[in-house]
Amino acid sequence: MTVKTPRPPSEQENRAAPEEWVADPNQAGPALTDKQTSRPAPAPEPELGMPNQPLGQAEQVPNGKSLLLDTRARQNAEMEEKVLANLQKQTGRAPGWLNFSWLKHLVLGLCGLSLVVLATQALSFISLLQGLPDWARYGGYGLMGLLCLLVLWSLGRFLISYMLLRQSPRISLTALRSLEQRANLRQKAHDLLKDAQEQLCGLLTDYPLKGRKKKKTQALGFSDEEIEQMAKVRKHLLELASEESTEAWLMQFEKTFLEPLDQAAKKRITRRAWLVSLKTAAAPSGFLSAAIVVINAYQLMNELCAIYQLRTGGMGTVSILLRIFVNAFAASQMEEWMDQATQGIIGTAATGTDAAAAFFKVLAGGIMSRAAEGGANAFLLIRLGAAGMHYLRPLTEKTA
């Protein structure tokens, strides 16, 4: 009798159900080798989300961490707003509520204030003319009419320049450097620098240095040699615009092209200040002094706009017109103020006989009063010119 020995399972069968044999050791099955019993456990699948979190649900951040992230985001947003507001302040841009419509009415209103000052002084001047002979009275009327026409002419030229010229970009490199120090605002700073460079390239291209427009530049005090040098500098800067870094190009623009414009502007301011000083010192009434100051103020601002080939921005225009109004009002009252001041000084200093004291008061008082009036009006006009340069200059501070 032959005993049949059980056939060992094939390798395929061993691979088919090893877990079943291990799960039920009492069940008959093939003998497992050491290699099979020591096989490594399968690697655990990666967990999704937080522990005990349903599949498909976004990871939940703990409340404390979420509050910290919100606080940091809010602080960053507030810091960005402060930096951008500082940039807007340094560039002299008008706030959002001061749109063009409001600005236009405000400009016209401030111009009207200067005319109101002149009108009140004109009435006083007319009453003064009433006591003069006919030939002097009619001559005074003619002089008053001529001055009024000059005031309107200078005001009209200023408004035309304001409307036709491009606005000064008022680039603040200090503010842009502060933007570059923050990673999230670095790209914005780069874009602003490139935009500023493009605007200044447009200014260089349109600046009148050749043809008929060259005569206008010569009338502003530029010599032929200076104009020729500026033309060479313009060509060089336009060629470097695509080669050098933006900030290095702006420094070159500052040093080679903008500084000559600053020097010409300072010369015009000094010249106008001397004219105002002499004319107001010789003017016999407050109306004439106020008219002289207003005419020269608007003409000075028109010359500065022509030198820079730019106009002031919104807040700059408001500031300039307010200064012109203050200058006109001060000029209309300057004679009376200076007479009172000099009489007080001379009265305490005069000694001797009554006749000598009276002569000294009249002579010294008149000279000191006129000199002080002319000097004060010149000082106010210099301050106006400095403010005009500040608001017209395309770079708000020295780059070097």
Automatic annotation (TrEMBL):
Coiled coil location: none
Entry keyword annotation includes Transcription regulation: no
Location of the protein in the cell: Cell inner membrane
Record region (Disordered): 1-60
Keyword Cell membrane: yes
Membrane disposition: Multi-pass membrane protein
Principal cellular location given in the protein's record: membrane
Sequence similarity: Belongs to the UPF0283 family.
Protein name: Uncharacterized protein
Organism in which the protein naturally occurs: Dethiosulfatarculus sandiegensis
